Automatic annotation (TrEMBL):
The keyword Lipid metabolism does not apply. It comes from Hibiscus sabdariffa (roselle). The keyword RNA-binding applies. SMART domains: RRM. Residues 43-123 form the RRM domain. This is RRM domain-containing protein. Keywords: RNA-binding. PROSITE patterns: RRM (PS50102). InterPro entries: Nucleotide-bd_a/b_plait_sf, RBD_domain_sf, RRM_dom.
Amino acid sequence: MAVRIGNLSRFFSTTSSLFHQPFAVTAAAAKAARVDEQIPPSRTLFVSGLSGRTTNQKLREAFANFGDVIHAKVVSDRSSLTTHCKVYGFVRYSNIEDAEKAIKGMDGQFFDGRVIFAEYARSKDTTP
């Protein structure tokens, strides 16, 4: 007895247009997908995409290659309803020039097994 799948064959087919999109997002694609907003330069950077294994010390050491790091802090958002937590961080430099060098050097790079993104941190009064 033959079983007719009908329209479901397209759903389960690997040639369906559903599967033409790559599952892994490259660093360049993720960077291009972000909305470029004009955030004024500051000495504090917001670093997103950190690994759950990243510590304050690892973050400080990685960003110290670009200048004098005053403070580095890793934040884990465990209030998420998903099974994994969002991990991000803040790095504060002694001057804006060092922060700019760090953005150019670390944005879209692999760090601790993940692609991270570095940008100027928003001040609390400009957060939407």
